[in-house]
């Protein structure tokens, strides 16, 4: 079995390149698509929009990829165990998450079934990729439109980190303005809805909610409520620098990019760290500008509707390196276009 550097076999790579990448956008579209059966249940059975077929087709592609990854890991584990018992190789101490899920047994003493591992891979992959790049792309868009905010963030990083080394994870707690930029990005461009099912009959502010009612929490509207946020459509990180610091984990139900409480995002710490750190590196190492003669008002800031709100069109900006040669591991000091 031939593996590439990322540990994927040729079979898995072929699946990704030939089918999976194409289906990724489809997954996010389908997760947030308007489905008529939610409103007129008897129509759902006829699938008039053809959504069920699209879900089935997409599911087959994802399922085939997850199964291939699991099978590859099983083959690798078997080969390693055989080589060890024959004394032809030392034990391989590196284990990725699939190795761990395949080899560890739970409290019941049983190994996890493939179906459950596939469900976990699916959740982690789709939950843990799109919202991160969406947040970073929106933050860069807001910064390119607001150069005074970018300059202030660069001044903060220059003061705390300097220009002779790259920003590190341990610097992040000392960068409150960067933290405010990320909060403001999540406020204006959050996953628009939290979708939950009521587990028992309840009543909220006079509204009776029967068991198993699907509830949509309109995060988008909460984040733009003028009673909570002054001038809510303006990108203004300063609003998070005054008064008591707002928490990004929805503790007070006014900033909810990761939901809140028990059913909130389980990957929130990792997700937040990846967004803040990636942005810190961009801000420290580059200035950004719009390509050619493009004016700020020409930049498309429309959103695409779904379970998250990505940009309608990908961002196209020019990155201008700003650190001395050799600090950032890229040789060229020429402007670089990022799309
Ligand atoms: C910027 C990054 C991220 C954002 C904005 C985000 C946002 C969210 C939101 C809003 C929810 C729904 C919460 C609710 O309904 O109350 C959610 C659920 C979830 N997220 Fe994240 N997420 C991010 C990163 C991640 C990462 C890195 C992972 C995994 C590695 C992850 C895995 C999941 C999973 C598995 C769920 C479903 C949880 C459940 O149904 O109980 N997310 N996320």
TrEMBL record:
- A single GO BP: secondary metabolite biosynthetic process
Species of origin reads: Riccia sorocarpa
Q: Give the protein's cofactors.
A: heme
Q: Where does heme bind?
A: 265
**CDD domains from the entry?**
CYP71_clan
Keyword Heme tagged = yes
Please state what the protein is called. Cytochrome P450
**PANTHER family the record matches:** CYTOCHROME P450 98A9, OS09G0441700 PROTEIN
């Amino acid at each position: 079995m031939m593996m590439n550097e990322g540990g994927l076999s040729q079979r898995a790579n072929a699946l990704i390149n030939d089918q999976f990448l194409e289906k990724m956008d489809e997954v996010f579209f389908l997760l947030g698509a308007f489905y008529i059966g939610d409103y007129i249940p008897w129509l759902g059975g006829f699938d008039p929009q053809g959504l069920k077929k699209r879900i089935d087709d997409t599911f087959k592609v994802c399922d085939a990829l997850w199964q291939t990854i699991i099978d590859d890991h099983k083959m690798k584990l078997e080969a390693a165990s055989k080589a060890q018992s024959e004394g032809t190789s030392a034990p391989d101490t590196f284990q990725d998450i699939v190795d761990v899920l395949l080899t560890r047994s739970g409290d019941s003493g049983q190994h996890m079934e493939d179906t459950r591992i596939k469900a976990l891979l699916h959740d982690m992959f789709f939950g843990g990729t799109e919202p991160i790049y969406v947040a970073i792309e929106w933050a860069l868009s807001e910064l390119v439109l607001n150069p005074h905010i970018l300059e202030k963030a660069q001044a903060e990083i220059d003061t705390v980190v300097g220009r002779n080394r790259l920003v590190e994870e341990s610097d992040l707690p000392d960068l409150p303005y960067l933290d405010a930029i990320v909060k403001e990005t999540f406020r204006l461009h959050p996953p628009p809805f939290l979708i939950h099912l009521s587990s028992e009959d309840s009543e909220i502010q006079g509204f009776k909610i029967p068991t198993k009612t699907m509830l949509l929490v309109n995060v988008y509207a909460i984040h733009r409520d003028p009673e909570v946020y002054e001038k809510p459509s303006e990108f203004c990180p300063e609003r998070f620098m005054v008064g008591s610091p707002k928490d990004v984990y929805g503790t007070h139900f006014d900033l909810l990019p990761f939901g809140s409480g028990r059913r909130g995002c389980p990957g929130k710490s990792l997700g937040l760290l990846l967004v803040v750190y990636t942005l810190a590196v961009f801000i420290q190492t580059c200035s950004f500008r719009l390509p050619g003669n493009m004016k700020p008002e020409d930049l498309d800031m429309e959103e695409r509707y779904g379970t998250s709100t990505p940009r309608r069109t990908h961002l196209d900006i020019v990155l201008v390196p700003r650190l001395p040669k050799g600090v950032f591991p890229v040789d060229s000091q020429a402007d670089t276009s990022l799309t």
